[in-house]
Amino acid sequence: MLTSVDTDLIRVLADPLRLRIVTLLAEETLCTTHLVEETGAKQTNLSNHLRVLREAGVVETEPCGRFTYYKLRADVIASLAGQFADLAESARGAAGNKRSCP
């Protein structure tokens, strides 16, 4: 079953811009400037979303001179995917189960 921590992560990833950021970071490590170019979002808006992703443990930062690069934490995404896979497996096993009404 999904825990409250997992549902918080799902809420974080449910935002369309944050999901777009995660999708871009799955391909390569990018700085804020690259993410602004790719998403078309304002820099302050993007920074707020990156903060949420960082606080949720989805991305990590990598300083490089005066720029900060963002990298997706694949282990966090894989863990969530594994929990969904477990949920799907449970549903497959319970497909024939039906509780009778009183």
Element layout with pairings:
Blueprint: H1 4-14, H2 16-27, E1 30-31, H3 32-39, H4 43-55, E2 59-64, E3 67-72, H5 74-93
Antiparallel strand pairs: 1-3, 2-3
Please compute the radius of gyration using only Cα atoms. Answer: 18 Å
Strand order of the largest sheet: 1-3-2
Q: How can the largest sheet be summarized?
A: 3 strands, antiparallel
Q: What string, H for helix and E for strand, traces the elements in order?
A: HHEHHEEH
Question: Can you describe this structure?
Answer:
This protein is α+β, with helices and mostly antiparallel strands and 102 residues long. The protein is 63% helix and 14% strand. It contains 5 helices and 3 strands. The protein has a 3-stranded antiparallel sheet. The longest helix has 20 residues, at 74-93. The protein is elongated, with a radius of gyration of 18 Å. The model has no long low-confidence stretch (mean pLDDT 92).
Characteristic key phrases:
single chain, 5 helices, 102 residues, elongated, 3 strands, three-stranded antiparallel sheet, alpha+beta
What would you say about this model in short?
The chain is 63% helix and 14% strand. It contains five helices and three strands; from the N terminus they run ααβααββα.
